[in-house]
């Protein structure tokens, strides 16, 4: 097993809408109509293809072993958007090198799996596909990526998420098993499993389910997106705090009050005395290109995960 593994995390690229994306859709529904209006009035100024292209070039220059993307590839989850996002994923990297979980915009309305998220299946299913798509597990070196879906249609003017009792129970069982196998467990989730900001309008509605699972069996890292801003927090685990880290939108330009795009380059190593060391380099957008904004590291002592 490699003693070092490097991976990149970014989120919320919001690939641009095209004027003809709604062609042939006879009834968009209130939710999609509001989303399209939001894009026209504000979001298209923020989510700029040139910024996203610069981020992807910076990621490629660092040559990570793996890339993880925590949702919101689309804006309205229209068929043309979903198909275009699949082609975009093809350009980022092969499915064995890129892992994706969906966001709320990717499930804005209820769409059959085969017509929606199923088109991205190679990037968001596990090494051993299961009947229940989530959580999925991907083993890469010493790291186990555990992909969770919080993507669920919500009412107009809401951007909430939900994990559900069954998925939460599977998540806890998976994390417990991976802990016994001494893997570095990275949970990928779109909505953060703790409170970020003051409003519940964008929150994970049943986040206590995730919090309780982490409190009982733990994880080494939780990565999220959704709020389009940088975030570092933690949740209690059986052997100490579990880091919970989010990033701003991967396509965000510094306009209209938006937090500029950032991505994080993580390195997992095994210290001589056991346990894990996670180091991170935060890369942020400037008009002159991406540069290092911050560095940090977390070291955990060797321990046995609670059963």
Automatic annotation (TrEMBL):
Residues 5-229 form the Calcineurin-like phosphoesterase domain. SUPFAM superfamilies: Metallo-dependent phosphatases. InterPro entries: Calcineurin-like_PHP, CNP_phosphodiesterase-III, Metallo-depent_PP-like. GO terms for molecular function: hydrolase activity; metal ion binding. Keywords: Hydrolase, Iron, Metal-binding. It comes from the Bacteria. Pfam families: Metallophos. This is Metallophosphoesterase. The lineage of its organism: Bacteria, Pseudomonadati, Pseudomonadota, Alphaproteobacteria, Rhodospirillales. Belongs to the cyclic nucleotide phosphodiesterase class-III family.
């Amino acid at each position: 097993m490699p003693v070092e593994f490097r991976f990149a995390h970014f989120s919320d690229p919001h690939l641009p809408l095209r004027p003809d994306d709604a062609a042939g859709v006879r009834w968009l529904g209130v939710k999609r109509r509001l989303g399209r209006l939001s894009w026209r009035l504000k979001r298209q100024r923020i989510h700029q293809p040139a910024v996203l292209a610069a981020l992807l070039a910076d990621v490629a220059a660092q040559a990570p072993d793996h890339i993880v993307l925590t949702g919101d590839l689309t804006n309205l989850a229209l068929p043309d958007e979903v198909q275009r996002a699949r082609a975009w994923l093809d350009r980022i990297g092969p499915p064995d090198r890129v892992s994706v979980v969906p966001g709320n915009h990717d499930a804005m309305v209820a769409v059959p799996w085969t017509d929606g998220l199923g088109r991205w299946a190679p990037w968001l299913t596990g090494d051993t596909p299961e009947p229940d798509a989530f959580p999925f597990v991907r083993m890469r070196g010493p790291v186990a990526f555990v992909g969770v879906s919080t993507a669920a249609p919500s009412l107009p003017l809401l951007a909430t998420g939900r994990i559900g009792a069954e998925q939460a129970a599977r998540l806890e069982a998976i994390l417990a098993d991976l802990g016994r196998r001494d893997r570095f467990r990275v949970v990928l989730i779109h909505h953060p499993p703790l409170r970020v900001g003051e409003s519940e309008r964008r929150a994970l509605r049943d986040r206590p389910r995730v919090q309780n699972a982490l409190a009982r069996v733990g994880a080494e890292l939780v990565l999220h997106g959704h709020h389009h801003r940088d975030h570092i927090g933690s949740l209690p685990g059986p052997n100490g705090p579990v880091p919970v880290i989010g990033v701003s939108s991967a396509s965000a330009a510094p306009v209209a009050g938006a937090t500029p795009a950032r991505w994080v380059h993580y390195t997992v190593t095994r210290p001589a005395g056991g346990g894990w060391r996670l180091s991170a380099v935060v890369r942020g957008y400037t008009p002159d290109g991406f540069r290092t904004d911050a560095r940090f590291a977390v070291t955990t002592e060797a321990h046995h995960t609670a059963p």
